[in-house]
Description:
Layout: H1 5-13, H2 16-24, H3 37-41, E1 71-81, E2 87-98, E3 114-124, E4 129-138, E5 144-147, E6 152-155, E7 158-162, E8 169-176, E9 179-187, E10 192-193, E11 199-201, E12 209-226, E13 229-244, E14 252-262, E15 267-275, E16 285-289, E17 295-299, E18 304-312, E19 319-328, E20 333-339, E21 345-346, E22 352-363, E23 366-377
Antiparallel strand pairs: 1-2, 1-13, 2-3, 3-4, 5-6, 6-7, 7-8, 8-9, 9-12, 10-12, 11-12, 12-13, 14-15, 14-23, 15-16, 16-17, 18-19, 19-20, 20-22, 21-22, 22-23
Amino acid sequence: MKRVAVVLLLALAGLAALAVVRLFSGERRAPRPSVAVVEALSTADSGFARADAPRPLAFPGDHGPHPEFRTEWWYYTGNLSAADGRRFGYQLTFFRIGLTARPTRRDSRWAARDAWMAHFALTDVGGRRFHARHRLARGALDLAGADARPFRVWLEDWSAVATAPDASAMRLVAREGDVALALDLRTMKPPALQGDRGWSRKGPEPGNASYYYSLTRLETRGHVSVGADRVAVTGTSWMDREWSTSALGAGQVGWDWFALQLDDGRDVMIYRLRRADGAVDPFSAGSVVARDGTTTRLDAADVHVEAQEWWTSRTTDVRYPSRWRVSIPREHVTLDIAPRLADQEWTEPVRYWEGAVTVRGTAGQRPVAGEGYVELVGYGDATARRSRARTTP
């Protein structure tokens, strides 16, 4: 599914005018969210295209922008290790939200059709620190944007850029203060088309869907920096790509998203749409990508997720699930999933939990291990208290 349609809309949809004013003044900090998830996503027809049926996806063209739709994102996450055993998780994401469905007149170089947001996080597992940074910019003056051929997406000097003509290799770069990454990614499997050939329905309403694919296994090497330390790392990344004009349906209040890479060569994606009454929405879904890249679709009834432990943020007082047991009977898989660090909560400009996790379990009669990322959106109210200083557990 994914996901930060909610994050984007919370930060920008209801507050776009204020964001643009701040952009004119050069202020990077986005306005803090003040609306509930359901309110932010219950938007009227805005003139943008709707994802109302499957359509052919083509690569590398669909890595590029789709301005006829209201929102889209490029979502990179991964787990990395250094030669000395140090472990890191990272997130680098770029979000575009259309301010108007009509092409912008270029009477001014400041004219912008889109607003852009980027999130950059580094989890230092050994140091037990979660470093989270964000930026906000207009789609003008070359401050932010995306191209298809060659593929690139950027916000100021944060970027994801193809280093091969077919975008089978990419380079990620981000730096903010004393936290940075520079990573080279190489695709190890073809794009996994989620849902019905890349058309992912979120509810029964017409057009309440997105176009969605994943690059589930990207060989990764490069460097991360924390403070004065610049560390060579290797690992595995995941890219999620989605665009739509859809909103959450009636009664849907958030979701849990899992992206898991197993050491038997399989990759698992699960999203659980949560309803206001606590039930799992029947439009929840997922997939299993085999070692050879073959994708098997999962429906809501194919997956069972049970929260085993909970963690309460000392910053926001929001309570999140913090350990899970996931079973997929048709795949003969049972997985226990645990965060590498409990506190991987974003609190600005919007609030959600997203972090690196480890995986242990069984596949048939054999043990299986792995790693991945989990995202939790919609827990707690929209005005979480922030009176206590942030600390790590």
